[in-house]
## 1
Amino acid sequence: MTAPIYTKTILDNLSTVEQWIADGATFFVGHSGGKDSQALYAVIKSWVPADQIVVVHADLGDVEWDGIQDHIKANIQHPLNVVEATPYKDGTPKTLLERIDRNHRRLVAAGRNVNPWPDNNNRFCTGELKTDPIWKYIRHHPAKIAINCVGIRAEESTRRSKANPLKINKKNTCSDRVQRAAFDFYPIFDLFEIDVWNIIAADGQKRHHAYDDGNDRLSCKFCVFGSPGDWQNAARHDPALYAWYVEAEKRYGFTIKQDKPIEEWVGIRVEDLDPTPPGLTTDAEVAQLDNDTSTGETDGEEEAQEPVQPAPAEQGAEDDHRQQEGEEDEGLRRRSTPALTKIALLAVAYAPSHGGKKLRHFIDFYPDLSEAEAVAVRAQRNRIDRLRAKRYRRRCNNGDPLLLARSSRPFRTPTAIAAAAAETQARRDRIERDLERSRRAEQHAVDTRKTLLAAARTARSLGFKVRSSSNHSGRVSSYYCTRDGQGFRISDHEIPWTAQRQSNAQFHGGRDFNGYHGDQLIIDGHHTATWLRRAITLTAAGRAVPGAA
């Protein structure tokens, strides 16, 4: 394990977490590949032994970002367990698109004019495609104590800020045939976004390229809770899936965002998108395309290819670049290979949402690019970096000086680490003292009960008639002993010989209804048999017992 990463949620529940670890609980880390999941894994890994961690990923199918599982595997030190939703009874895979379409058909058949898209009040996308498959995996796991760790943060929304970061999951806790205690735990609940990024960087993890491309969050490509920027980025990566959402919205008659159609809200029309995803995703694709365009053959006579003309916005960017460089850039229109020309144009046109990772492919794998093309690509990449940094600062700080100071402070300074360690040690010392007091009190109560029973047996052996009396919990706490007009009480608690008892005793020849004269032998702790015999004899005679309570 690495050095513990302290969060407020961990410290508030430190004794519980340590008890879980000591009891051999299994911590199931739900990993979506996003920033919160990466920070969650780093925090859990810093506290929990490696053999008590299980990483689970819910496969979302077509709506999941390409390469997300490879990204997760590259940033964790545990095997990745991939789960998916249970198929429908007819054998159809349960995907998000199929679930939305079936929801629409069900509502129409029922005559209900209701929006079929998931929303805050009906998040079946999360519940049925993520939460349920993960809990199904946990239920089939032999863990007796199951901790479902989720990367939920209070900063994300008002609703999430009201959640309880540690609670028992009653639905998946059972005590009959399969004994299992199940809990939901949000270890990074109190962290800010800047803390999440700091934890990821300190742990040596790499973030998903969608964040470099401008995404605010990483879940489904077209998450109903995503921002317009997220949808723009996803639309350029997967135009076909974007077209499905646009067509489905028109077919259902309901908008996802309730107020605007997708194309108006996102700002991109389907017909404006190129069916070929802009840029290349992997190095293998780049090398394959380079090989195809350089060695490809044509059937018959090669047809003349018209150069691809840039869009007006692209033409304006080129004009600005020509003014700055003082030379005319003809490379983007005069490439001998048409496919390479298209790649270069797309790189310049779509750079603001695709970031530097895609643009570097053109420089790294196409060293024969003209100098003007390389300069144009680098200029776009630098512009993206500046805009992204500015937007990131605005989003993180929001103009709040306190948040600005928080984002600029060093993460986990030595002073903060020492203070947290001292607080943790003090908490552990208090817990150990409380446990020791509890153990002593419990042992003392056991000794007292054993001695009380031994006293009753000793009284019987001395010829006393013994009657027992129980307390409210049903445990015998007193014995009343009588012999030849002598009577006394043996108990673990004292009852005073009140005036009412004395008045009642006048009707019983000086004794109460139990034959109790008022003499008492109070047992507190452990005593020997010799001491008990002597104490009973003295008490019966109405004399004080040395060493009695």
## 2
Amino acid sequence: MPHPLKSASKLVQAAVALDEQLRNFEMLVAGAERVPLNSKRNLEKAAQKTTEAARCAESLEALVQALSTSLNEAREQNQRTAAVLVRLGEEIRRRGDEVIALERRLLALAEDAKAITRAVHGLIDAPSDGEREVLPELERTERGLDTLVDGAQQLFQDCKAAALSDLTGELESLKQQLQSARNRVKLLREQLGHSTHPDN
């Protein structure tokens, strides 16, 4: 089983190594301090322990430096990550504003489509004796539908460029409805045009 510290970050490894060496340093100093200085042998023993403690202190300097380096690296990484977070937040806000603007255009287009669809049904159901009055209205309605179809196509392209698949799906359906209504109006206009000009 791998040692848990092997998968830890450099910062954690440096902190743990420094902590362990600090504990070792404290133990060495405490051990040297406990040796009574009452004989040559004990003096040699105390000198040996203080030498070990001094070497440990030297290694502590390197470990402190390693921890300081790891802290600086962690700080820089944190700054880079924070910058990514800021950029992501800005991108989310920008995309959100883009979606809102496109949805408003879609809503306005849908409202116009509802109004002109009601007008189409009214023209289709108009009495036959009003054909001459209906024909100019059909022509205006057809031009209005042409404008709406063009608007739906442009909005579809804008949503596609923005990679908004849910809006492009709604627009494709709306565009088909408008095209169908335009075809019906065109057919009715042509039929009324023939009936009002039988010699043509």
